[in-house]
Each structure stands twice: as structure tokens, then as C-alpha cells.
Design brief:
CATH superfamily of the largest domain: Spore Coat Polysaccharide Biosynthesis Protein SpsA, Chain A
Largest sheet: 6 strands, mixed
Number of domains: 2
Distance between the termini: 30 Å
Radius of gyration: 19 Å
Number of strands: 6
Shape: globular
CATH class of the largest domain: Alpha Beta
Order of helices and strands: EHEHEHEHEHHE
């Protein structure tokens, strides 16, 4: 793995409280990787996140990119825009676009147990384009979950549309059918918390 090249991508908004622990996770990874590049995309933060990231990146290979939305769009649209922002940055950089892997990490604590050994074990698998990690107990981010003939739509849009045409007494059942019943399903094969991509196989599209 040491000869492979990794781009590590993170989106950040007001994560000053979690960044220090996350930096320890990053340090554990990059000290074992010969060639890496870290991309932070910071959006609409008013805490100390920017200063913490700038200081962390000193003497490291990486960059801080910024997107300021001024609350013009919703949270999920902001995440989508920030992710496309680092994908565009990578695709427009001749050197970065030739890197072997892209590792996408949340900075809010969910990746604090990730380390070099676990990452190395994961990428030893053969014939893969993406690796997706889950939790042992239950999966909480139903909004991000998609599975054919299982959960194919935006759960929150469906929830809102059904509530509009239902009585108050049926709200509990509607919430269960669209969100909570998926929490304890065995869905470890297709949920998303950590994403690793073979960059040579990836197509960057908006």
C-alpha cells in the first residue's frame, strides 16, 4: 500500500470540536502512505474550523478550498456542491487525476476508529471500484441509502408527501414505514460512511 497514492477528501462546516480527534486519524493514515494529498472543502463556518485546518495542513500535502453559500440552499444541496467541488478540483489537476485511490471521510467523529491497518486490509480485496463501510449495530443515515427494490427514493420527500395526505393519527406509522424500519436491517453491503474509489476507474460528472 505504501506505493499507492491517496487523495483524502473531507467537507467541513463548524466542526472545530471534532477536528482535533479527526486530525489524529489522518496522521495515522498519512504517516504510512508514501504519496497522499488532502482536500478540505469548508463551507459557511463561523467557528475556528478554518484556522485549525490551516494549521494542520502546514508541512503537509493538501489544500483548503472554500465555498460560501450564505444559506442560499439547503444542507444536502450544499454537501452535493462541496463534493462536486473537490471532484472538479481533482479532475482539473493533471497530477491528482492520476492518483490511485480517493478516500472520502466525514470529520464529525464517525471515522475516529479508522486506522492504517484497517484501511490496508480493505484495499487488499480484488476486483473492486468502491468500498463502503457500515456500523455494527444499526445504520442511521437513511437519507443516503439507496438500494433497488428496497429503498429507491428520498425518504424525507416521501415522508412529507405521505404526511400531507394522511391524518395526524397515522404519522407514527408513516415515519416507521419510511425511516425507522430501515435502522436495524442488515444492510452492511451497501451503506455509505467511508468511500474509497479507484480513481483510474472513476468518471467525474456533476
Amino acid at each position: 500500500m505504501e506505493k499507492k497514492s491517496f487523495i483524502i477528501c473531507c467537507t467541513v462546516k463548524n466542526e472545530a470540536k471534532t477536528l482535533k480527534k479527526f486530525f489524529r486519524t489522518l496522521n495515522n493514515l498519512i504517516k504510512n502512505i508514501e504519496n497522499y494529498f488532502i482536500i478540505f472543502v469548508l463551507s459557511d463556518s463561523y467557528d475556528d474550523s478554518k484556522n485549525l485546518i490551516v494549521n494542520f495542513l502546514k508541512n503537509k500535502k493538501g489544500i483548503l478550498l472554500e465555498k460560501n453559500f450564505k444559506n442560499e440552499i439547503g444542507r444536502f444541496a450544499k454537501l452535493e456542491t462541496c463534493r462536486n467541488f473537490y471532484l472538479e478540483y481533482i479532475s482539473n489537476d493533471e497530477e491528482l487525476s492520476k492518483f490511485t485511490y480517493m478516500l472520502v471521510l466525514d470529520v464529525d467523529g464517525v471515522n475516529n476508529l479508522l486506522n492504517y491497518r484497517k484501511l490496508n486490509q480493505s484495499i487488499q480485496k480484488e476486483s473492486w471500484n468502491g468500498i463502503f463501510a457500515s456500523q455494527k449495530l444499526f445504520y442511521y443515515d437513511i437519507f443516503a441509502l439507496r438500494k433497488k427494490k428496497y429503498l429507491e427514493t428520498d425518504c424525507f420527500k416521501k415522508l412529507k408527501s405521505e404526511i400531507k395526505i394522511s391524518s395526524y393519527f397515522n404519522y407514527k406509522n408513516i415515519f416507521y414505514d419510511n425511516i425507522s424500519k430501515f435502522f436495524f436491517k442488515n444492510i452492511s453491503k451497501y451503506v455509505i460512511l467511508v468511500l474509497i474509489l479507484h480513481l483510474e476507474d472513476a468518471e467525474f460528472t456533476n
